[in-house]
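The passage that follows is intended for readers who have already worked through the single-chain material. We present the inputs for a multi-component assembly, then the predicted structure in tokenized form, and finally a short commentary. You are encouraged to pause after the input and sketch how you expect the pieces to fit together before reading on.
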Amino acid sequence: MQILLNCLSLTSFYLCFALGLALVFGVMRIINFAHGEFFMIGAYATYLCISTLSPQVGGPVAWAIGAIVAAAVTGLLGLVLHRTMVVPLGDKPLAIFISTLALSYVIQTIVVQIFGPVGLSIAPPMRGVVNFGGAILPASRLVVIGVAVVLAAGLWVFLMRSEAGRRIRAVAQNPRGALLQGIRTEKVGRLTLILGSSIAGICGAAMGPISQISPYMGAGTLWKAFIIIIVGGIGNIWGAVAAAAIFGVLDTLMSQFGAGRFLALTSAAVMLFVLSVKPSGLFGEKE
Amino acid sequence: MNMLTRLLIAGALAGALGTSAAAEDTIKVGVVQPQAGECAQWGVPITRGVQIWAEEFNANGGIADATGKKHKIEVTGYDNNCYTAGDELNAFRRAILDDKVSFILQTFTPASRQAVAEITTENKVLTTSYGAGYLGPKYPFLIGSVTGSPASYMFLVSHLLESRPEIKRVAIVTADHSFGQAALAYYKAGLAPYLDRAEIVYSQPYDPASTSDMLGLATPVMASNPDLIVELGFTPGQQALFVEAMEQLGYKGLYGSEGWTMGLVTERVPAAEVAGRIFSAYVVDASEPNFSPRVSAFYKTYVEKFGEKEWSALASVAYAAMTTIEAGIQKSSDPTGAGVRDALFASDTVDQPLFGPSRWGGSEIFGANNWLMTPLPVYVTDDKGGVKVTAVVDVAAWWNAHKDAALPALSEGGQVSAK
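Having made your guess, compare it with the prediction:
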């Protein structure tokens, strides 16, 4: 039972982080290398909120405020990224990739200057554990699972049921066709980047209390997110969900049965295998 | 030549001579450690520790050599990209060839030390560490100036087994990288004399990337039902997360590691719950006020400069390692790498400024007595999240008594280079 809960917990970690990246890549076909830093900014925003507001309003409320602030700050960063890099560089995905890589270093350096290079710890807003048939799940991990589920479900409802979501799907499927139908693709791109960045910020808020936060935490997480969206099918959100579950189970079982040292190797091998038999990923469509 | 020109030339010459004299008087020290990135949480406090050591002397005009001449100490930090061997060598090249440093403090990590063994020897740059790793007769300028990593792991776990006969099951949690592998071997060596009454129930190394899921990592450790968990490889924040996960899983046993940042642990687990259960054996932990007045004063300086939240015992480890170099400079009339080495190795023992008389050792492991076996304080946490000294291990005596049992385990772990 504990192993099952660990699988669920790890899947939610992976999903939470990969969702925003999958959305941005799926719609805009650009790799936002600063996505990891937006995640990190979300965690630091939450750290500031919890450390300053917690004595007055209590941990859970301070965390909730932190998550809202994280979403707002990273959404704003997404808007700035869109205005200053994505629009001016237009249809040059390599140039956008390199400029977001540069942006990630800029953000890291700024955070190092403000908070120092030494990692910080966010006091868990919710303590205690929940028992499930002899196994345990810490309350702070339940929050991550809840956030991942709400984000995935919310994104599904937004994409499938709202007018803005329909426009986003149209652009993701065929940008030129969407343009010919009168959809303002630039506006859709802006909304997507704001949304994807905010999701990264919320994930930082959710995962900060259960992991050490540092200026470099984003870069460490990003590689796994890339593997997940590649295996799931680049740009396919439901593929990302499936791949997060695959790696959540695989990584948990490997750690449990003494093969933890081969996690990175196995992840890379799985990605290469999937690419070799289905280059578009498990749930991706041929371009 | 008019008067003004002559004055300018005289001034320029005087300036040049003055600069040259000042350069000769300055002792240059390099600290090769991670200065950025995730591992900076180790490297930055270590660098600060050496800087404060230098500032203590510089505030009084410098460090006096055997002739009484004072030398200012200049400390420069060099980044090794999280202990990557190739970057370690690049940093050494910059420090030695460009900046002409005479002394370097670096990691004990065997792979990193191996990478720089030749360059330090060729250039006679005395290179020390807060422990002993990759020493050997071919590399006389590579030394270990205190009992620190990785040997301290051996002494810590053996002390716990010796003082706590109720420990029957030991889990070893180490990362799958060079210093994690060294730690695993030294932990096993420390347990070797007691394997008739205790067993190793877990020793699977983990991928450092997997530390983002601490519950997944802790679950199999808990399943092995240990009485004592010794770890090496987590960052301070990860250590706190690991303790939190183990406590959530219901663990009630002991923890041991090189050191713990208790401020981070007690943010997650109440200090009273882990009081008396978390042990460490850093070279010295300056936050403990009673072991040495000098290191205690160092702690106060560090906290005044950088704040209590920035404190890491690694700073005092680096400080302690430099005090051996300090003893060598003070005994030498030629404070270069070669001169200080000669002074330090003039006899079998060094009157170490913090630990007192300590013997050179290590020949059975490394084939050369280039490791100063200083006594090792063992610390335990109290109910306020502080630490206190619970014992001081006589390292040389322990090694004489148990080396026959320990050496095969070290050899099996690839740590013995003596022929």
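Commentary: The beta strands of chain A are 129-132, 135-138. The first helix of chain A runs from residue 2 to 28. How closely did your sketch match?
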